[in-house]
Structures are given as structure tokens and as C-alpha cells.
Amino acid sequence: QVQLVESGGGLVQPGGSLRLSCAASGIIFSINVMGWYRQAPGKQRELVAAITRGGNPNYADSVKGRFTISRDNARNTVYLQMNSLKPEDTAVYYCNADGEYLRNYGRASFDSWGQGTQVTVSS
What is the pLDDT of residue 105? Predict the structure, then answer.
């Protein structure tokens, strides 16, 4: 299977910046879409940003102009640069990726999630 490991969360003051990283590991054949979701206490998990293998991004309206998603296909890694952070951005951020991995008798699809990283925006 494919594992995703996130890093880069933490505590930051309003207006500050953080950069999240998520690396996929395993015998990966290809990764289609990589994305970031977040879940605040008492709320449903929501899409923050996603990016296709070709580099086309998609953002939630609440983060447009502040967050930038990018990926390094050679390293199977996706990044989320978060600027001008607000208290309402506080949440656990999860990485997601889907694609195909290699098995003994061919390829199989995967849709994997990371363990989550806490982002807290507070003064």
C-alpha cells in the first residue's frame, strides 16, 4: 500500500505563515490528484486545495489568494504554503492522494490519507 506522512504544522500568530509537506512512500506507479483537507473541532472535513499530476490547482474559496499548493512528482511530495493565516484556519490538516501502486501480479489503485498535522493560529 501507500503511506502518506505530513509535516510542518504548528502554532503561528494571525498573519503568519506555515508550510506543510506530505510525502508518499511505497512502490508507487503513479499518483493522480494530491490534496489537503482540514477538519476543525465540531466541523466536517473540508477540501482546502488539490493539484493534479499536471500541476493544475484547485482551492477552496476561503483560502484563495492566501494558500498555494504545489507538488514534486519526482519525490511524490505535495506542499501547502499558507500565508496570511487567520484564526479560522485552525484545524487538523490531512494529506490525501490517489493513484496506482505495484503489486506482485500487477497494479492496484490506492486512495490514502495521512495521519494529520495540527495547525493553530492564535495570538
Answer: 84
36/108 Cα distance (integer angstroms): 23
Q: Coil, strand, or helix at residue 88?
A: helix
Burial 27-64 (b: 16+ CB within 10 A, else e): eebebebbbbbbeeeeeeeeebbbbeeeeeeebeeebe
Question: pLDDT of 7-51, one tens digit each?
Answer: 999 999 999 999 999 999 999 999 999 999 999 999 999 999 999
Q: For 120, list phi and psi in degrees, rounded to 5.
A: -125, 125
Cell numbers given for 108: 492496484
The whole-angstrom separation of Cα 121 and Cα 89 is: 7
Neighbours of 70 (CB within 10 A): 14
User: Per-residue pLDDT tens for 68-123?
Assistant: 999 999 999 999 999 999 999 999 999 999 999 998 889 999 999 999 999 999 99
